[in-house]
TrEMBL record, chain A:
GO-annotated cellular components: mitochondrial intermembrane space
Domain PRELI/MSF1 positions: 1-178
InterPro entries: PRELI/MSF1_dom, Slowmo/Ups
UniProt name for this protein: MSF1-domain-containing protein
Automatic annotation (TrEMBL), chain B:
GO molecular function, one term: phosphatidic acid transfer activity
Family: Belongs to the TRIAP1/MDM35 family.
Keyword annotations of the record: Disulfide bond
Classification via Pfam families: UPF0203 (PF05254)
Originating organism: Melanomma pulvis-pyrius CBS 109.77
Higher taxonomy: Eukaryota, Fungi, Dikarya, Ascomycota, Pezizomycotina
Keyword Disulfide bond set for record: yes
InterPro entries associated with the record: MDM35_apoptosis
GO annotation, biological process: phospholipid translocation
Listed name of the protein: Uncharacterized protein
Domain of life per record: Eukaryota
One of the record's GO cellular component terms: mitochondrial intermembrane space
Length: 198, 81
């Protein structure tokens, strides 16, 4: 088994991050073209804890190098299963995902957490990501190690692009919110002006 | 928002996603959500999606993933420590 982990911070509030998280793979993100679809399978609020649980199916298209494809026979469409848990009181989003495709050969389990940064809880959000990668296929340890290492490397590349892409989404989202607020303010101002005229 | 894996579900998915995002940002995060007004839209989307998942044989893969995920639910849906 190999472990990939990293942590970083976003210069956005936890609320902004938690809202934009739902738009992470939308058109504002130009850095993750390998994610082609995101479908919501179920969504419930736990009555006891108030935690929002969402199940999603992520569809990716990303080709593997030839040697990996030869060993694993990898298809070009991959599916991942994701459950996320939003705790609005603790202000924490936890996202767990696993691969559904080739899961008898390779197990990839990832957990991401977004929570208020201890350095600036009302302005910044801390992000941590941890993935466990285990090759399950039979055969030489050397081959298993290479497959695990390839997957870790791919993870690292996708994680870097993922952060860049998410930054784009956060920026756009902040702009759009500001524009909407401005629009509402202008509408209210004009109403006041109209009333004054009458 | 992102596309659906089944293009025939895109239209209803978009309507549901927009409804959800509004509910999430304006009610859920502020602690004022009493019910989920997006549920009727979700039902329509779900109906379309489940047909597509069956047709593509993804539903059986999904069942396995759900079974594997039980421990995550046990860990992450529990009262605040």
């Amino acid at each position: 088994m190999k472990i990939f982990q990293q942590s970083s911070e976003f210069d956005y509030t936890w609320e902004e991050v938690s809202i934009s998280n739902w738009q992470k793979y939308g058109p504002w993100n130009e850095k993750t073209p390998h994610v082609v679809a995101v479908d919501t399978l179920s969504r419930t609020v736990d009555p006891a804890t108030g935690i929002l649980r969402t199940e999603r199916l992520i569809t990716c298209k990303q080709s593997c190098p030839k040697w990996v494809a030869q060993i694993l026979g990898s298809p070009d469409t991959n599916y991942a299963y994701e459950t996320s848990y939003v705790d609005p009181k603790a202000k924490r989003v936890t996202i767990c995902s696993m691969n559904m495709t080739m899961s008898d050969l390779l197990s990839v389990r990832e957990t991401c957490v977004y929570e208020r940064a201890s350095s600036a809880p009302d302005a910044k959000t801390a992000f941590s990501q941890r993935a466990e990668i285990t090759a399950l296929c039979g055969g030489w340890q050397k081959i298993k190690n290479s497959i695990e290492q390839f997957t870790v490397d791919r993870f690292q590349q996708n994680a870097a692009r993922g952060k860049e892409g998410f930054e784009m989404v956060l920026e756009m989202s902040r702009k759009v919110f500001a524009e909407q607020r401005e629009l509402i303010r202008m509408q209210q101002d004009s109403q006041i002006l109209q009333q004054l005229r009458h | 928002m992102s596309a659906s894996l089944a293009s025939e579900c895109n239209e209803v998915k978009e309507r549901y996603d927009n409804c959800f995002l509004k509910w999430y940002s304006e009610k859920f995060l502020r602690g004022t959500a009493t019910s989920d007004e997006c549920d009727p839209l979700f039902k329509q989307y779900e109906k379309c999606l489940s047909t597509a998942l069956k047709a593509r044989g993804i539903d059986s893969m999904l069942k396995e993933a759900r079974d594997d995920n039980r421990e995550n639910d046990a860990e992450h849906v529990r009262p605040n420590r």
